Amino acid sequence: MPTLPCQRCQQPLALPASTSSPSGQLSSGARALLAPAAGASRNATAAPAPLSRPLAHTAALQRLLAAPALRHPLCKECTDAALKLTAAESEQLRAERDALAAWQAEVKRAEPGDEHLHDEIRQLEDEAELVTQGLREAERDRLDVEAELRALEQEERELEGDEQRFWAQYSELSLSLAKLSSQRDALQTAAAHDAAQLARLQQTNVYNDAFSIGHDGGFATINGLRLGRLPGSAAPTEWREINAAWGQACLLLDTLARKCGVVFEDYRLCPKGSFSTIEKLAGDKAVYELYGSGDWQIGRLLQSRRFDHGMVAFLECLRQLAAWACARDAELRLPHAINKDRIGEASIRLQFGSDETWTRALRHVLLTLKVLLSWACRRDESSTAA
Asked: Among the entry's GO cellular component annotations, what is one (predicted)?
């Protein structure tokens, strides 16, 4: 029995006896089955002769059989496998064919007509015109914005210049303000000092400062000068001090009379320091000394009498000033009454009197002068305030 190998798995295939001759050669049918495999390449490229339609189909089948994808003969198992593979490929090709046909139908349905294309073109042209117009407007806006930006930059530069000038002026004004503030503070300090000084001076009475009346032990003093003599004193008073004290007392009385506008009757004060005098204007005109001496010569005795007359005249002038003041101020109260040569029951005469009585009378004189001085100052302050 003749055998052939399977062209896929090379297993021997049993062929029927009719496929070979007695000589062991293949029959003409078997050779015809195997011949296309040998000459497939030659027949596949050969151009078919012009034939009728049935013959053309037959020729095409022969060409397909002459160039198969699988070589044969095959065994049954390989043939079944080849059939399954061929069926799967056929199914895939049919699916691809259906998808291609559906796509072609969709493309044909989606193809627009000429009128539709013209409308779409016109619509696109209109949109393009609108976009172009919008671009032109945007370009104009851009140019306007650029011009405005340039104007703003110019304004910014001007403002920067103005700011620099402002800060320069501000610095100058700040320095000027600091100087003026310093001057103002200095002036305010000076004004406050002057105001305090003025208040202090307003409260200060120049008469009180010029004529300070006090006491030192049993003596009355004026500007630190003791007026009077006391026996047995630890520091006896010299006549130079007494005379100077009388000069200050005469000056004070004359100053108060001038301040109040009082003109004494019959007498005129002549303050001359330690050698002050009083002039008698009425009757027997005379000049009385307001200074004394401790010398007991005859001439000195006569001077002592004039000294006593001078002290009595001084007391009379003091009485006139006190009367004038009491007439203008009912509330004024003097500490001692004055009657001729006595003040407070103490005689002011030194001759034929004791030093103690004389010194007490002099204390009363200075005390009365102090009261009149205070009253005149208060009266002056009241008139100034009014």
From this structure: phosphatidylinositol 3-kinase complex, class III, type II
